[in-house]
Structure formats: C-alpha cells, structure tokens
Amino acid sequence: MERREFLKWVGIGIFASNLPVLIAACSSNNTDISITETTQTPDPISVQTQDGFIPIGTIQELEKDSFILDKKYNVIIIRDQENGTIMALNPKCPHQGCTVKWKRDQNNLECPCHGSKFGTNGQLLQGPANESLPIYTLKQEGDSLLIKMS
Ligand code: FES
After folding, report:
1. Residue nearest to atom 4 of ligand 1 (CA)
2. How far is Cα 102 from Cα 89, in angstroms, rounded to an integer?
3. Ligand 1 atom showing the smallest separation from residue 127 Cα
4. Continuous H helices in the chain
5. 141: part of which helix (H) or strand (E)?
6. Residues with Cβ within 6 A of ligand 1?
7. How far apart, in whole angstroms, are the C-alpha atoms of residue 95 and residue 108?
8. Best substitution site from 95, 100, 117 to test ligand 1's pocket, by max atoms within 8 Å of Cβ?
9. Is residue 108 a contact partner of residue 125, using CB atoms and an 8 Å limit?
C-alpha cells in the first residue's frame, strides 16, 4: 500500500470513529453533548427507586447460591437457615476489613482472615473483631431484593 493510500484510509477511520460526536454536535436541539458508554456501570443514584432502595438481586439468585454478594454496593444478602429471614449486611469485617463469608451450614458469617464470626443479623459472636456487622434495610418487591444504604 502506498503512503498516500494509507493516509487516506487513516483519515476515513478517524472520521468514522468521530461521526457520532459530530452528529451530536450538529444537532440543533442538543446544547449539551455527553457521551455515555453502554458498558459504564450506573451509579447508585441512577438505579435508586423513588424511596431510595437499590435492587441487588432476586430470590432465585439467593436460593441458587444461598447468598448474594454485591461488591459494588458492599452488601451480602443471606437467608437465616433457622427462621427463613432474609438479611442484608455489610460484609466488611470490622476488625481489618476482610470480606466475611456466609457459612450456610453453620448459619453464620465467618471472616477468613482471623476467624471472627457473626450471626445472621450481624451480631458479633466471636472476635478478634469487636463490633457487629452493620445491617441494611431490605425489602422484597416481587422477586427482587432491594436495600437502602442509609
Ligand atoms: S479482618 Fe476479620 S477477623 Fe481480622
């Protein structure tokens, strides 16, 4: 390929990649130009319901894996194996910040780093942590499980 032909194709490529921006800029009723990537993760505000709840998962997901761990919102959802209550907790161990693991067969949460244990409602059962896990308000709408962060 000759240099001139190569430069022609590079020019076409640059033009084509910027075409959406150019179209948006030329639109008469678009004064603000914003480009949103479809792979972008929505921020917490944009997925909140009107009452401030955020969808975290579904009953099916909870039943399938026995827990839902959402690292983005830092929440673990579990079902108490004794009374069936569904709980949403902050899984960050108050000792040194490791993520606790759900132990379904023991009906508690355990920290893999230094062995702290917590009950299904977050209460501290065994140290070295000296605080319980914070719990979130949780509600079920149909099959969806939603939490309120504050
Ligand atoms: S970080 Fe959890 S017990 Fe140390």
Report:
1. 114
2. 11
3. 3
4. 3-26, 44-47, 59-65
5. strand 135-141
6. 93, 95-96, 98, 111, 113-116, 128-129
7. 17
8. 95
9. yes
**pLDDT top residue among 109 and 25:** 109
Structure tokens at 145: 């499980």
* Ligand 1 midpoint to CA 127 (Å): 8
Q: How far apart are CA 46 and CA 120, in angstroms?
A: 30
CA of 13 to the centre of ligand 1 (A): 53
* φ, ψ at 18 (rounded to 5°): -100, 5
Opening angle at CA 58, ends 48 and 56, nearest 5: 35
Hey, where are the domains in the chain?
Answer: 1-35, 44-148
Confidence of residue 35 (pLDDT cuts 50, 70, 90): very low
The SS3 of residue 87 is strand
Q: How far does the chain reach from its first CA to its final CA, in angstroms?
A: 62
Assess contact for 77 and 145: CB atoms under 8 A. yes
Ligand 1 centroid to Cα of residue 147, in Å, is: 25
Instruction: Please determine, looking at this structure, whether the domain spanning 44-148 carries the CATH number 2.102.10.10.
Output: yes
Nearest CA to ligand 1 atom 3: 114
Residue 102 has a pLDDT of: 97
